[in-house]
Amino acid sequence: MNPLLKKLQPYPFEKLRALFKGIEPRAGFTPISFGIGEPKHPTPALIRDAVIDSLDGLASYPATLGSEPLRAAIAAWVMQRYGLESIDAATQVLPVSGSREALFALAQTVIDSRTASAAEPPIVLCPNPFYQIYEGAALLAGAEPYFVNSDPARNFACDYSAVPDHIWARTQLLYVCSPGNPTGAVLTLDNWRELFALSDKHGFVIASDECYSEIYFDEGHPPLGGLEAARLLDRGFDRLVMLSSLSKRSNVPGMRSGFVAGDASVLKDFLLYRTYHGAALSTVFQRASVVAWQDETHVRDNRAKYLKKFQTVTPMLADVLDVRLPDAAFYLWANVSGTGLTDTEFAARLYADYNVTVLPGSFLARFAHGTNPGEGFVRIALVAETAECVEGARRIVEFCRSLKS
Ligand SMILES: Cc1ncc(COP(=O)(O)O)c(C=O)c1O
């Protein structure tokens, strides 16, 4: 068997199951889960209808490149969303089966492990905390993940200036996540300027995971995207690709529809890899995706629901925890250290006493540079409907107050 598989870490939800093993939640409370970051709002009727209307597509193999109408719809969306004058739908856009598989497959395409000795494998730079796929993708590509801790004092920005030159020299791929999971932080134009300068100097590819880009709280200020930053800095897309997805934007995580856009030469090799990888998006879902990317009404409605939820729940929790409205995405990243409990103790006791599930931050980060930057935090995914989120928040408030009495 592939020995690299042994390097993979258990997924955060496996760690959570282990943490909760043997705990019987107190009777009288229905379960409320803020654990898994899976969108729960209903899928819009126009997308469901488009799926049904496209069922004859089951009779054909989908093209890895995606259909021309889908690439055109994505290109139009990207141009409109990021203010680009043009993007070539034929060479700079590629539909994928959700951003997760693409984040993974991209590392298999980009990493050249022959360039290094076994003692010094290529490096994939990851934010810390981070989405665990980055680490697994790096390890299975024969690379080594190098974690750059995010700093709560600088809105969770990563300190790239602390990365030594010998690490940059081995870096072939850098993942960023903006809006970030779990912190919700959005990279600023200055952050991008720094990253582009580093990529231009050291030659690594930037993979910008932007799957939460359409969940934000101020209609006038959508999160800055990587391609948009490149435009604003007059840079072009060299060694830059962004990944996006309909899962959160349109409440269709089961459709597995996303795209990668940016540097045409990276996408050319990615397409070749994908021809063998065999993860082409079903024709049925390609057609429904065209409808989804062409409609913004359902996306605005979706945002309005999240806004209402966050405006209600955040102040409730801010009374008892160090937490504030994030830049974007659907998580609250709450500092629980003021309660006197560790993040794992907090999660376990909250589950036992109130049947509410939150994810300990330390499960979403690695110990690096003397610390685990997720420690002391919990991730609260506000994905359920408002009434359930409010009830969960009410229980968390009661729980925190009970700790003080
Ligand atoms: C940061 C991040 N990236 C990517 C994904 C994958 O999303 P999808 O494959 O549905 O596009 C997720 C899913 O939760 C995520 O949290």
TrEMBL record:
A Pfam family of this chain: Aminotran_1_2
Highest taxon above the source species: Bacteria
Signal sequence region: none
Required cofactor names: pyridoxal 5'-phosphate
GO molecular function: succinyldiaminopimelate transaminase activity
Residue span(s) of domain Aminotransferase class I/classII large: 32-395
NCBIfam families noted in UniProt: DapC_gpp
Protein name: Succinyldiaminopimelate transaminase
